[in-house]
Amino acid sequence: MICDNISVSKDGHLLFAGQDTIQLAKKYGTPVYLLDEDKIREKCRTYKRAFKNNFGDNAAPLYASKANCFKRLYEIMTEEDMGIDVVSSGEIYTAVQAGYDLSKAYFHSNNKTDQDIAYAMDNNIGYFVADNIEEIKAVEREAQKRNMTQKVLLRLTPGIDPHTYEAIATGNVDSKFGTAIETGQAEQIALDTMAMPHIDLKGFHCHVGSQVFGEDIFERAAVVMLEFVAMMEKKHGFVTTELDLGGGYGVRYTEDDPYLDIEEKVKQVADTVKTTCSRLDIAIPQIHMEPGRSIVADAGMTLYTVGTVKQIPGYKNYVSIDGGMPDSPRYALYKAPYTCLVANKMNEEKDFEASLVGRCCESGDIIQEHVKFPHSVTRYDIVAVCTTGAYHYSMASNYNRLPKPATVMLRGGNESYVAVKKETLEDLVRNDL
Predict the structure, then answer these.
(1) Which string of b and e fits 211-240 if b means at least 16 CB within 10 Å?
(2) What sign has the CA pseudo-torsion 93, 99, 100, 102?
(3) What's the confidence (pLDDT) of residue 248?
(4) CA nearest 186: which of 217, 208, 161, 155?
(5) Which end of the chain is more exposed for a tag (fewer CB within 10 A), N or C?
(6) Is the pTM of this model over 0.90?
(7) What are the pLDDT digits (tens) for 282-295?
(8) DSSP conformation letters of 360-426
């Protein structure tokens, strides 16, 4: 199996986090998002251990909230002593409602409104990760009103191509995010920020992209960023105390994806950081990275019920389910690959190829093409889509006026509980006038 929390029972049922998915589907209905709480905690601890062992006590991983965000998840981050990054007032509000200490939060986004900035300061945000000079000026104005000093990192683009999906590559010079080093604009925005009396510039941030497997992507980004850090120190006397190298480690969606050893990957980055700082004769800044997908993705699975099986002899076949692109949008966005399984027929031969499609009135409502099913697949079978803990619930919509599924947390091999209730039809019209 692609993940170590997936297995098969003697009676041919798919098990996730040690629990029978068929029984979970009966108990909670479908579609339903499942999340393995033990796996999430394991990943948090793996990152924290790797950072401490390789960078020292001051370094810290930050959970990237945009991967998946709801109150219970922030409670787990508090319990695991994880920092977080947030990208909107909505994520900030959710964290506040969960009792998260926002002094450990870093606020991203390439276009924070004045209202976003004020709201974040109202809730004692730790850091702004500022994208551009307009934002810096807005943060300065709000901090001046409050007679306070606000900690800031500047997001820079190092000009690294991560060889990932174009839509989620963010480190190129012409990216919509950050300020380019190559053009000289990064140096200028750093000088402008240093001149702001109510801003405490702590350092710099970069993010090269998502679903990255390349062996040296983060190492190359670290070298570019540290060379900029050294230039700022030698030319302008600015000492960088924090450097955030972003997130983006890939996860296994299919058998073709490699395993990533997170502890080994962090060690490789740390070795490059130490070697580069020594070469440049600068102190090692406090290092952050921002795992999101790699913490929650393989902690997730989505269950659906088959409605129809359509065969078009000589052309293609379709298996339709009771969800679709509103709750699973990544294939429509990126043609993202997935492993799809008939959860109640795991011991049967997979000899029937079909497209797994949703219920929406939209030809692009596809979960996955060319899926191998048992030939007996039929109405009422349960289909599981694996590795859905990231960018499913967080990107879900109500397209075709469909309610969003519940999120059910699994733990301890036999315990399950609802963390996010399934939306009702009443919820769909709650804000209608």
Answers:
(1) bbbbeebbbbbbbbbbbbbbbbbeeeebeb
(2) positive
(3) 87
(4) 155
(5) C
(6) yes
(7) 999 999 999 999 99
(8) SS-TT-EEEEEEEEETT--TT-EEEEES-SSSSGGG---GGGPPPPEEEEEETTTEEEEEEPPPPHH
Asked if residue 381 has pLDDT above 90, the reply is yes
Q: Encode pLDDT of 131-151 as tens digits.
A: 999 999 999 999 999 999 999
Kindly report, residue by residue over 152-169, the tens digit of the pLDDT: 999 999 987 655 434 434
What confidence score (pLDDT) does residue 215 get? 65
* Residue 51, phi-psi category: left (phi > 0), alpha (psi -120 to 50), beta (remainder): alpha
Q: 3 an active-site residue? A: no
Other Cβ atoms closer than 10 A to 425: 9
How far apart CA 360 and CA 326 sit, in angstroms, is 8
Characterize the bridge pairing of strands 316-321 and 300-312. Answer: antiparallel
Are 327 and 396 in contact by the 8 Å Cβ rule? The answer is yes
* Cα angle 327, 332, 338; round to 5: 75
pLDDT at 160: 76
DSSP-derived pairing of the beta strands 127-130 and 105-107: parallel
Given a cut of 50, is residue 334 above it in pLDDT?
yes
Q: How far apart (Å, rounded) are the C-alpha atoms in residues 433 and 424?
A: 18
Q: How many CB atoms lie within 10 A of CB 421?
A: 12
Distance separating alpha carbons of residues 200 and 4, to the nearest angstrom: 44
Catalytic residue among 3, 44, 361, 386: 361
Tokens representing 21 are 């998915």
- Sorted by sequence, the CB contacts under 8 Å of residue 204 that are 6+ apart come out as 153, 154, 155, 156, 190, 225, 228, 229, 240, 242, 243, 244
